[in-house]
Write a structure and sequence with these properties.
Order of helices and strands: HHHHHHHEHEHEEHEHEEEEEEEHHE
Number of helices: 13
CATH topology of the largest domain: Rossmann fold
CATH superfamily of the largest domain: Vaccinia Virus protein VP39
Helix content: 25-40%
CATH class of the largest domain: Alpha Beta
Shape: globular
Distance between the termini: 38 Å
Length: 460
């Protein structure tokens, strides 16, 4: 009888270095990955660029807020003298991050009927009043209690302290992708729905500068609009705004013919109470989009669901009385226009990205944080020079002589690819090692190799 081959554990995630047949495991996994372009093709797309600056690199290094915005925010908070501000900031942050979508009335009625039938079958309740009370009590315990936040002057300041820098970082990452892939795009007008503290305006000005001539900030809260205006004036009630051409409104423009080069909704769809309200707002925002519609939400399952529902709505072309008949396309981050494979999986997961940023130096803040967010950028009739490269949807795991890449591919499927220099060529291997979460790689699937399921190979 042949001696049993001894297996030694690898330092990464405690898996074995060899399969039972004696084949190294990373090669086995690489065999499940897709075929890729030949090395000559890699050289073609690289040109004279270094591997660390290949065309698929879209991430931003640590985002820095404009000093004028930092100074204004510090001044406003110092003047406010809010009690227990650190505790209030943490409470609001936790609430916003854990927020779920409100249950639709139809779903609530269905759940109530199920509970009523279940209680009737037990026969423990004698009267109709007792039954109704028991159903209401059970619903309170099992249904998420969603409520709309009312941003008065105090809550607006707390929101600014909690979310101004993180929101700026997420939107800056979205704008950077447009700028990097379409460097000739010079927008002149921008509309920000649910503008809040005005972080979108600052991020757009930081990205495109003097190109933008008009910013329309729309928010239902008069206190938020007043706060955003004061931030533009250095934290003062009067003075010259740091960014010219900014206008504030509490309602969306009525005329359907008015379009903006860039339309943004950042962390605002979650403030709408129903699917019907979100559908109406998204259709309105799309009608007003001349080039790009940017939607950003928290990097949670609820946030991801919101942006994917909006994506599907635009791609279906269900716009009412369209003025602009150019079709909508997905510009980023999806390399395809199929249904999101993360939502169609047996266990749906959020598709999110991360952006490092330097925080506003409040006493309770760490100097550096990561903003986790979900986004979709939709374009009006513009597909761009997108090479249909696969998108990295998790952090890249770099190991000796191989790199683990979790990808969303142009065929609408998820892939786990182990890139090695021997199998994929040294240029693609070095590009993979230089890439990070959110970047793109020139990987293409092949019918010879079926897609492999995404595996979690994190260090946890």
């Amino acid at each position: 009888m042949a001696a049993t081959r001894r297996l030694r554990p690898l330092p990464w995630v405690g898996r074995w270095s060899c399969s039972p047949a004696g084949t190294p495991l990373f090669r086995t996994l690489a065999d499940l990955g897709p075929r890729v372009s030949q090395e000559n093709d890699i050289l073609d797309f690289l040109g004279k660029r270094a591997h660390r600056k290949h065309p698929g690199v879209l991430h931003l290094s640590q985002v820095q807020l404009p000093q004028a915005l930092v100074t204004a925010a510090q001044r406003l908070l110092q003047e406010s003298s809010l009690p227990n501000i650190e505790k209030q900031v943490q409470t609001l942050t936790n609430y916003l991050w854990s927020r779920k979508l409100p249950m639709e009335p139809e779903e609530l009625r269905r759940k109530a009927v199920e509970l009523e039938n279940k209680l009737q079958d037990t026969g423990s309740l004698q009267s109709e009043k007792q039954l109704r009370g028991a159903v209401l009590s059970a619903l309170r315990k099992s249904v998420y209690h969603w409520q709309k936040l009312s941003y008065d002057e105090r809550l607006s300041l707390v929101y600014m302290a909690a979310r101004l820098d993180g929101g700026f970082a997420a939107v800056s990452r979205a704008f950077h992708e447009i700028q990097a892939r379409v460097p000739d795009f010079k927008p002149q007008t921008l509309m920000d729905f649910g503008s809040g503290t005005g972080s979108v305006t600052w991020a757009a000005y930081n990205t495109w500068g003097q190109s933008l001539r008009e910013y329309l900030c729309v928010d239902s809260s008069a206190s938020m609009l007043a706060l955003a205006e004061r931030l533009l004036k250095g934290g003062l009630d009067s003075g010259k705004p740091y960014i010219p051409g900014v206008y504030f409104r509490q309602f969306l423009p009525v005329s359907p013919k008015v379009q903006f080069d860039v339309v943004v909704s950042a962390f605002s769809l979650s403030e709408l109470p129903s699917v019907a309200d979100r559908t109406e707002v998204i259709q309105t925002l799309w009608r007003k989009t001349g080039c790009f519609l940017v939607l950003v939400e928290n990097g949670t399952k609820a946030g991801h669901r919101l942006v994917m529902d909006a994506r599907a709505l635009v791609l279906r072309g269900s716009e009412k009385s369209p003025i602009d008949h150019r079709p909508g396309h997905v510009f980023a981050p999806c390399p395809h226009e199929f249904p999101c494979p993360k939502l169609s999986a047996s266990q749906p997961q959020a598709c999110s990205f991360s952006q490092a940023y330097s925080t506003i130096p409040f006493s309770w803040n760490h100097s550096r944080k990561e903003e986790k967010f979900s986004l979709v950028i939709l374009s009006r009739g513009f597909q761009g020079e997108n090479h249909q490269w696969a998108r990295l949807i998790q952090p890249v795991l770099k190991r000796p002589r191989h790199v683990h890449c979790h990808l969303c591919c142009p065929d609408g499927r998820l892939q786990h690819v182990v890139v090695t220099a021997r199998r994929h060529g040294r240029h693609l291997y070095r590009c993979a090692r230089a890439s990070t979460w959110g970047d793109c790689l020139p990987l293409t699937t092949s019918p010879e190799f079926p897609p492999s399921p995404v595996q979690d190979l994190s260090d946890d």
